[in-house]
Amino acid sequence: MAVMGTFAYxxxxxxxxxxxxxxxxDDIALLSPLPLEDAQRALGLGKSPVxxxxxxxxxxxxxxxxxxAAGTAxxxxxxxxxxxxxxxxxxxxxxxxxTILFGVIxxxxxxxxxxxxxxxxxxxxxxSANVDRFIVxxxxxxxxxxxxxxxxxxxxxxxxxRHVEDSQ
Amino acid sequence: MPMMFDxxxxxxxxxxxxILSTMLVTGRGYWILLGCTMSMAGIFFFMPWIYQLFVGxxxxxxxxxxxxxTYLSNFIFWIGLSHSGTLLSAVLHLTxxxxxxxxxxxxxxxxLFSLMTAALFVMVHVGRVWFVHWSFPIPNQMGLWPxxxxxxxxxxxAITTYLTASxxxxxxxxxxDFAAVRDASSGIRRRLYTIFSFGWRGTAREWHTLGWxxxxxxxxxxxLAVSVHSIVSWDFALSIVPGLHHTIFAPYFVCxxxxxxxxxxxxxxxxxxxxxxxxxxxxxxxxxxLGKLLITLSLIWTYINILELFSTWYxxxxxxxxxxxxxxxxxxxxxxxxxxxxxxxxxxxxxxRKIRLSWNKMxxxxxxxxxxxxxxxxxxxxxxxxxxxxxxxxxxxxxxxVEISITFGSFAIFATLFLxxxxxxxxxxLYEVKETLKPLRRDS
Lengths: 168, 444
What we know:
The complex is a heterodimer of chains A (168) and B (444).
Chain A: E1 2-7, H1 10-22, E2 28-31, H2 37-42, H3 50-75, H4 88-115, E3 134-138, H5 143-155, E4 160-164
Antiparallel strand pairs in A: 1-3, 1-4, 2-3
Helix pairs in contact in A: 1-5, 3-4
Chain B: H1 12-24, H2 28-55, H3 70-94, H4 104-126, H5 151-184, H6 187-196, H7 204-237, H8 249-275, H9 284-315, H10 318-329, H11 333-345, H12 353-356, H13 359-382, H14 401-424, H15 430-435
């Protein structure tokens, strides 16, 4: 069972989030129509693993970019004025572009991996969370925990509290 | 955070209603305008191109001396116009500038559509467009791979990367807004936006991940944008043609690109404000900031132009001086001086705050700047190649009706893409505008 509390005011929503986390609820989703640093802090979200994807992508891109340029020069030999086949100045440009290309693509993959999107299952949600309401969802609660969560959410000033099904 | 709104602060619900209504409600005027731009694109761009495909690139005015013409000068122009969108958006995101939030989505779209238009010019220029895949590192029937030592291949890699990164940048920034469209619509549109939004709910974890990813996109995009126009400049500067072989070309092109792109943003913002009724969201703070940026860029651009003249005069190489004389006093001299007037002198009017805060005057200035910038690109191509070294290699280039028509038609293509965009993506970011609003408090 999940408990869903809807708030009209950001401050009440943040109070509810902090009170729930300090009461030991750890399976909480905080839905808001805009990014709120305080909400992220209440859930203890620090540095995102997305940055590791970006770094890995950049490194793979750099290596594969240089390998592609140098490999092509070695396979299709095109001597130019006695110069070296593997010439750093032009190949570094290809390396540079591929570093960025793979960095961006891996960052995108990182976003999907870390955020869990695309969402393949229905999850508790109200469309007003994308307009002007702030919603706290407490998931995986038994009846006793759910009652406690309802009390905390109501005390924080929720305009509506409802019981919904957990993620399906 | 400065006050962003000229007409009082809207509520969160107002933001959704105002911005989504421009997508969900379509008047007759929109369809007429779209029909006009599509027809113009067909008549002025695609029909002459088809004609050129049948008769060959001889239909263009290019010749033995001037093997590059209007197609490539337009290519540089459109690549340049693409620069301010994503670049400005990324820089302002990294510096946390609040005035970015209402204008960046459309600016990024401008980047994307300018790039697409620029890519079309490459296809028009190469003549046999069905062989264009030979420039990509993919297996082909010839068993050959591209020569990565050529600046043209730098271009292919840079523009492909820029197009990919810009598309991802604008798409990822739009995901929360796609969810808002999903919730506000029904039927097939709702199903489509359910897919587009990946099931976004707006949880703290989703916002947190998007924030990090978006910042990394911005970090990647800034050096990428600088590299793209530097590389475009090397298409010219790495040749030994007088008038092109200048070390200043990379910063010159990058500065010019940001300059014309910023002017393009002013033009697009004017249209959005006027025709989509975004007066509430795009205000004088945006105009003032863009005006100040344009003055700065204009001064840098002027400085680089003076430097180019000085270095040629100081170098005193006969063929460089000849190319310069042709540029300053030859057949295309009126266009050169028109460029100087529009890009170096007219922008100085914006030193007056009164002019900077006038939408109509800023629209005129922004259009004049871009006329100057498209002229600049034409002059770079048209006055250098026909003046190569010895007089017996001198020639002349003048665009044919096919090239002039295709140039005109490219603006119709850009306008068509933009008109389609405003019906598929919220032209202003909903959530970023909400970030600039003071939160509603219980005691307020």
